[in-house]
Amino acid sequence: MPRYAHIIGWGKSVPPNILTNADLAKKVDTTDEWIRERTGIQQRHIASSKETTALLALHAARDAVEVADVNPQDIDLVIVATATPEYPFPATACLVQNALGAERAGAFDLEAGCSGFVYALATATALIRSEMYNTVLVVGAETLSRILDWSDRATCVLFGDGAGAVLLRGSDQPGGVLSTILGSDGSGGELLMVPGGGSKHPAGPDTVLSKQHFVKMNGREVYRFATRVMAQASRQAVDKAGWQLEQIDLFLPHQANVRIIDSAAKSLKIPPDKVFVNLERYGNTSAASIPIALCEALDAGKIKTGNNLVMVGFGAGLTWASCAIKWTAAQPGAPAPQRAAASRLRYIWSGIKSFGFQLSRHIDAAVSKTLDVIERKPSDE
Ligand code: UT7
User: Fold this and answer.
1) Residue 121, CA distances (Å) to 41, 64, 207, 247, 249 in order
2) What is the full DSSP assignment across 271-306?
3) Best of 37, 223, 279 for a ligand 1 pocket test (most atoms within 8 Å of beta carbon)
4) How many domains does one find in the chain?
5) From the CB of 313, is ligand 1 less than 6 Å away?
6) Can you tell me the distance from the alpha carbon of 18 to that of 41, in angstroms, rounded to the nearest whole number?
7) CA of 45: how far to CAs of 39, 50, 160, 276, 284, in Å?
8) Residue 48 lies in a domain
9) Ligand 1 in contact with 147 (CB < 6 A)?
10) What is the DSSP track for 141-194?
11) pTM to 2 decimals?
């Protein structure tokens, strides 16, 4: 019996602080008109120093778990797609797994630039279809604002912060993620990169002074690449699912530039009312853009049970990724107050437990250090 991977929960989290184009025009040599005309972006959300990638990811994940009404203990795996992790290591996914109380779950980060969410969705789907796992949490989370050069008008106007998450579960019921396409052309890696901080240019005073920890991009070339692969990858996912393009009910593209989205939709002959766009309010949130768009499309009532969705992303790597989804979830009702209270208690309890584990590790270490000293004493004398 074939297994299918269904999305059963979803959630998003964006920091409340908004930076408008007018605000940006006060910092760099740009105008609201230029940004709107060339990108479609009007504003973006920017995280405060306390709102880190893991925190945004956790909030989106909790919402997804809530919507699915699943106990975090039932989650088998947590994947966080991000280009702006909390630390080089441990993985942001491990922090989310711990804070969520997903005690049985494995966890890892996945880096595929702005295509990361669809890459992670494809990975989760494959693991569910192979029956290795049954319940997988996929998060796309970014704090791009941390790695932007705020004096570079060619990049700082484009990006924003946020997170989106979905919970997938295996079932024999046909539907869910029906096809996935993943692509890469590493020959274009230098077109969009953060050159510093890795093994090639380890962090040091010189890398900081030469601004190598910031996003560097050849926008024009990335634009050309994006307009080519978006339509192509979408077509491939649709073919692989056995659909015709006319059967797409909603197109959910990576939210980077409205001109790129329009060009892909035109090439696929998808009418504007079937294309979801929210980049005017968020800018490009990289791996978070598609799951945030999914949540907003659901909130706007644009997705109904049985609808055919296509998601497609492109980004650093260069990478691209697409998928075709037969939407099977029903809109959840408002959570019962008792359920919300139970979840809160569960999170508090898992926080206490996690703190307890840390404390016992410290006590263990202190005790074994003391014992070492005592045992060594006679020979030292
Ligand atoms: O998720 C993947 C992330 N990357 C992307 O999605 C980027 C894809 N590329 C793009 O979206 C577009 O290429 C941009 C929005 C980045 C740029 O639009 P464009 O129409 O390709 O503009 P351009 O790079 O060809 O620049 C046109 C002019 C240049 O001036 P000159 O050389 O013609 O005098 C730029 O210096 O616009 C200038 N410019 C700006 N002017 C005002 C570049 N950025 C700005 C700015 N404000 N923020």
Assistant:
1) 26, 14, 34, 22, 20
2) -GGGB---HHHH-B-GGGHHHHHHHHHHHTT---TT
3) 223
4) 2
5) no
6) 12
7) 16, 14, 5, 19, 10
8) yes
9) no
10) EEEGGGG--TT-HHHHTTB-EEEEEEEEEEESSS-EEEEEEEEE-GGGGGGEE-
11) 0.94
Question: Does any domain span residue 331?
Answer: no
Residues 346 and 267 in one domain: no
Residues 206 and 297 occupy one common structural domain: yes
> Which residue range is the domain that position 290 belongs to?
4-326
Residue 252 and residue 371 share a domain: no
Torsion over CA of 82, 239, 11 and 93, rounded to 10 degrees?
Answer: -30
Please give the angle made by the CA atoms of 265, 268 and 269, to the nearest 5 degrees: 80
Q: Tell me, what CATH number does 74's domain have?
A: 3.40.47.10
In testing the pocket of ligand 1, which one of 27, 32, 38, 282 has its CB within 8 Å of the most ligand atoms?
Answer: 38
Chain segment 112-170, per-residue pLDDT in tens: 999 999 999 999 999 999 999 999 999 999 999 999 999 999 999 999 999 999 999 99
Six token digits for residue 203: 């962090």
* Same domain for 93 and 167: yes
- Give the H/E segment covering residue 252: strand 250-253
Is there a single domain that holds both residue 291 and residue 342?
Answer: no
Start-to-end CA distance of the chain, whole Å, equals 71
125 and 195 housed in the same domain = yes
User: How many residues are present in the chain?
Assistant: 381
Residues recognised as catalytic: 114, 254, 284
Does residue 319 sit in the same domain as residue 343? Answer: no
Model confidence at 381: pLDDT above 60: no
